[in-house]
Structure formats: C-alpha cells, structure tokens
Amino acid sequence: MANSPHIYEVTEATFDAEVIARSHEVPVLVDFWADWCAPCRMLMPVLQAVVDSHAGQVVLAKVDTDKEQRLAGTHRVRGLPTVRLYKDGKVVEEFTGAQPESVVRAMVERHLARPGDPLRHEARSALAAGNAEHAVQYLTEALSLDPDNGEIQVELAEALAQQGDLDAAQERLDALPLQIAETEPARRLRATLMFARAAGTGGDADIAAMLAADPNDSEALYRRAAQSVVRGEYPEALEDLLSVLRNDRGFRDGAAREGMLAVFEILGPQHELAAQFRRRMAAALN
C-alpha cells in the first residue's frame, strides 16, 4: 500500500461508507487489483501520481480482489486492473487494464469540484422550488467563476427557458461549442425549446375549438402535443404526434415525425416509452 493520505484499502464491510458515501463529498477512484497482476503493479504509481497531485480533491480506494473476492463478484469485475470513478454515489467513468497517466488524469479532472459548483447546487434547489429567476442569477454568477464549464452553460439555458425567456435560452444553446452542443443535456433542451415555441402559438381554448370542429386537425394536434411536452406529459404528446403522422404525414414537411424523434431525444434512448413509440412510428411509416 502506497504511503499517501489520499490512498486507502477498502473491504466489503467498508465499501459503502468509504466509497459510496464518501463519493458524495469527493470523487473516489476505486482500483480493483491483485498482487499477482503485472498490469496492476504498472498502474499503481500512475494512480498515486494523479491522486497525490490533486491534494485531496480525489481519493483512491484499493480493493485487493484476492482477499475480497465476493466484493469483486458483486461489482462484476471481469478483468484486472479495473478502475472505476465514483461521484455522488454512482460510477461515472471506468477503464480496465493499465493506462497512461494522461488518460487517467483526464478522466479524473473531468469530475473534480469546480468553482461554480456550490452556486449550481443553489440553482438546482431554486429550480426545484419553481424559482427560475433565482436559478438564472446563481448560474450567471457560476459561469463568471468558471466560464469554460459547458455544463453550466447548458444549465443556464435551461433555467432561462423555464423562466420563459426562450430567445435567450436559444441564443445560449446556439453559442455552445460543438462538443458541448452535442451532449445529451444540450440535445434534450434543444428539443424541449422547439416544443415550447410551438406551444406558445395557441391557447388551450383555441386548440379545443379547432379540434371540436375537426378532431383530426393536424395543426391543433401538433400544438396540443407541444403543450403536453412542455408539461412533461410525454405519452399524450406522442399519441397526438402519431395521429398526425398517420393522417397527414406531410404536415409541415414531416413535423410529426421530427417531433416524435425530438420527444425520444428528451426521454433518452433507453426509455421504455421511447422504445414503444419507435415501434409504432415505424409501423405507421410502413
């Protein structure tokens, strides 16, 4: 065991406290290793150099898999060394096999605490309480402390959207560097903004009147779907969009299909609802 205050052994009995719980305070690298494993011995000085260079901003928990076979089995360790980075109780990145210091360092530094983090937490609390205005203030200040943080830029755009300033939110999104613009949160927000704009083009009474006159009115169904998305009512939104797709495939140059794809983006690729409606969309298009 390396002589470092930032490196320690964990066992099955201490894993929850020393890894899961502690990762809510500081990122925890977990090294599953064995004494007979040559790549493990090669990797250890690299891990120590990275951890020690950050002086307590990240710690290293080592699991001797010969002694802790059940723990390794529980965590489905298939090869050695396996290194996992825990943050906020979850694995955020991992690798197997010896890696150069540049790779390990880049992985760790993606998850270190940053100057704007406390303000981001305040912003999340404000949004949860329905106070988008305060969230915008917190995130604007956070961005001034950490201007290259893409996550803050996306979160600020989202707060602006929740505040109702769709133009400012769109401007923020449009100004994002490509690597940030293509992240899942940014794509999800872009899709949400599309529906927020459509939802603002007609009130409930207008839509109801249009549908009373014609239950298959594509424009009314599309607007109602947009309003459902804004409210988080995704099944209802997808049903309306699917109706438009079936009855009026050419509406707004394929807006129903594009709308369904945008909802899938919001839900995420693994969501059961997305999988269900992908099948129904495919059937409608055939």
How is this structure best described in words?
The protein has 286 residues and is α/β, with parallel strands linked by helices. It has 15 helices and five strands. A five-stranded mixed β-sheet has the order 1-3-2-4-5, with helices on both faces. The chain is elongated, with a radius of gyration of 24 Å. The N and C termini lie far apart (62 Å).
Share in β-strands: 5-15%
Which superfamily, in CATH terms, is the homologous superfamily of the largest domain?
A: Glutaredoxin
Mind telling me the C-alpha Rg? Answer: 24 Å
The proportion of residues forming helix, as a percent range, comes to: 55-70%
End-to-end Cα distance, whole Å, is 62 Å
Please provide a brief summary of the model.
This protein has 286 residues and is α/β, with parallel strands linked by helices. It is built from 15 helices and 5 strands.
Q: Which key phrases capture this entry?
A:
single chain; 286 residues; alpha/beta; Glutaredoxin; Serine Threonine Protein Phosphatase 5, Tetratricopeptide repeat; elongated
Topology:
Layout: E1 7-9, H1 15-21, E2 28-33, H2 38-53, E3 59-64, H3 69-74, E4 82-87, E5 90-96, H4 101-109, H5 117-128, H6 132-145, H7 150-163, H8 166-174, H9 178-181, H10 184-199, H11 204-213, H12 218-231, H13 234-247, H14 255-267, H15 272-285
